[in-house]
Amino acid sequence: MNETATLVADWLIVLPVVLALVGAAALLMVRRANRVPVIGALLFLLGIIACEIGLLIRVVEEGPLSMTMGKWLPPFGISFTVDLFSAAFALAASVVTLVVVVCAEAGRDADDGRDAFHAMVLLLLAGVTGAFLTGDLFNLYVWFEVMLIASFGLIVLGGNPLQIDGALKYGFLNFLATTLFLLALGLLYGLLGTLNMADIMRVAPGANPAALTGIAALLLLAFGMKAAAFPVNAWLPAAYHTPAPAVSALFAGLLTKVGAYALLRSLVMLLPASRDLLEPVLALLAVATLVVAPLGAIAETNLRRAVGFVVIGGIGAILSGLSLASATGIAGAGIYIFQAILSMTALYLTVGLIEARTGAMDTRQMGGLYEASAPLSILFFVLVLAAAGVPPFLGFWPKLLLLQAGVAGSAEGWVGGVLVVALIVNAILTLIAGTRLWSHIFWRNASDALPLARSGRRLRLATSAVGVLVLAIVALGLWPNPLIEGGQRAAADLLAPSRYLEAVGLAEVEQ
Amino acid sequence: MDYILAALVGVFVALGVYLLLSRAVIRMLIGMVVLGNGVNLLIFTAGRVTREVAPIVPEGLETPAGAFANPLPQALILTAIVIGFSMFAFLLVLAYRAYQSLDADDTDTMRLAEPENAPQPPLSY
């Protein structure tokens, strides 16, 4: 029996989630007050970011950290366990949420004030952060559902028929995905008798490998639906263009990435033997996602739907890292998740600004925006290059790591070589799709384009907020060394999780 | 007993999947409920069904004496039931709103977000 209380410093691990939940509840109560929800949301977000920076510094210095609530020590109680990947993703998630809240002000009127938008944004962030920081699979399910119910609220905010249509498809398929996840959890519990991640790593090697691989395949299906990987991606372009642009940006940056993170955690760290067996499947899914998604973006005339396909292409890059489970490949996948959180949110926010200026959703009704707003054209162009992975922007470095891993892996089988080709094809197709969109929106001298709206103070504020985010993406792309080193350390911890086990306190009871 | 419950889980999941394959939104909703209950039953069965005493620690001891029933599946199922019910409630209201504003219960006729005759992509560069 452990009689020592949890160290005060260890509360830092749950503090971001607690702050987000408390903030959501508080903002729900004051939602009728005029400006209070915005200011409150910004303050809470700054507090969360401060906690997560502190957490990241501690994780960099000390390695993975863990805390267990209520003195039900692992493997019985619910642990929160943070490693480098989770801390970095959680920080990126709250930074983009801050930018989204600032940008959302551009599209909100005084009478929008009572719809509890900010409370739901904080609730969504609580779900996302909880999913990143938790060390227990059932707890991960709960955070998925917190995230899901908050996103349900956000997607129908406004309630026009278009949103109802998108929300219905989004709602059914995501609820089905979490139900499948729960199904896999039940089977895993029946097989191993535990749901604590560290404990699963300990007992999984002794279990029936066939049964375990079946569960891993079910997890792959459930998280693949969440991440919008190829055969189960149809809900994303059907839903992400329906809500307000700020909401789409938040979804594009956070939701699919949590699915990808859960895949990384469950397949690479928890069930590595099953991942090896599923490797051909993973590689095929990655190739299909990488190639099909940008083709969808090329064929689409609705701007936000086209960008949705670009988001799906990024998921393909992450899957290719999972199917090349060398340290370099995992580092590439992890850094790609980090960069996708930043750049996909920025891309959707820029698209929202374009829609606000042109008053259209269809690229055929846009044109000549370059003359009216050169900064917007630069933002969009930089983000297209970052998404395609053109040096020196942030998207290039994880793709370089993935290509390296692919070339190294091509000696051992067909997987590496095929993925290298698919990654390059994806980069070219994404570049074609992105530059075509750019030339239609900004460059084309369209006579049938809608007249441009005038830029107001709020739009300029939103543009500069996105500008700051894009500057961060450019700066991280120019000085990528800390990111790459961090990614490689985190990948090493993920592949050989002895430090993780030690942090949870299960290392010394080896069987 | 375990075998009967396992077979029942199979029936529930099969029924849920069958209903989910329907185009009518209300049938899909019922399918989700049946599937969700099948999953709950699965967790219950996965915790092993035993006729033992409640897991209460007697005074003066640190662990329960002798064999006892597994309390964890109940906690898991209770969480899953609450979450599943709230999701179902939301989707039910959403389906009703969709019926009101889109005048459709058939997913084939819900084409607002994804227009049926999507325009050709512009052929210029």
Automatic annotation (TrEMBL), chain A:
Entry's Gene Ontology molecular function annotations: NADH dehydrogenase (ubiquinone) activity
Keyword Transmembrane: yes
Gene Ontology biological process: ATP synthesis coupled electron transport
Principal location: membrane
Subcellular location: Cell membrane; Membrane
Residue stretches spanning the membrane: 12-30, 42-60, 80-104, 116-134, 140-159, 171-192, 212-236, 280-299, 306-327, 333-354, 374-394, 414-438, 459-479
InterPro entries attached to this UniProt entry: CPA3_Na-H_Antiporter_D (IPR050586), NADH_UbQ_OxRdtase (IPR003918), ND/Mrp_TM (IPR001750)
Record's bilayer topology term: Multi-pass membrane protein
Domain of life: Bacteria
Domain (NADH:quinone oxidoreductase/Mrp antiporter transmembrane): residue spans on this chain: 135-411
Keywords: Cell membrane, Membrane, Transmembrane, Transmembrane helix
CC annotations in GO: plasma membrane
Family the UniProt entry places it in: Belongs to the CPA3 antiporters (TC 2.A.63) subunit D family.
Protein name in UniProt: NADH:quinone oxidoreductase/Mrp antiporter transmembrane domain-containing protein
Organism: Devosia soli
From TrEMBL, chain B:
Source species, domain of life: Bacteria
Membrane topology per record: Multi-pass membrane protein
Any Pfam family matching the protein: Oxidored_q2
GO cellular component: plasma membrane
Bilayer-crossing regions: 6-21, 28-47, 75-96
Keyword Cell membrane included in the entry's annotation: yes
Keywords for this protein: Cell membrane, Membrane, Transmembrane, Transmembrane helix
Compartments in which it is found: Cell membrane
Family in the record: Belongs to the CPA3 antiporters (TC 2.A.63) subunit C family.
UniProt name for this protein: Monovalent cation/H+ antiporter subunit C
Source species of the chain: Devosia soli
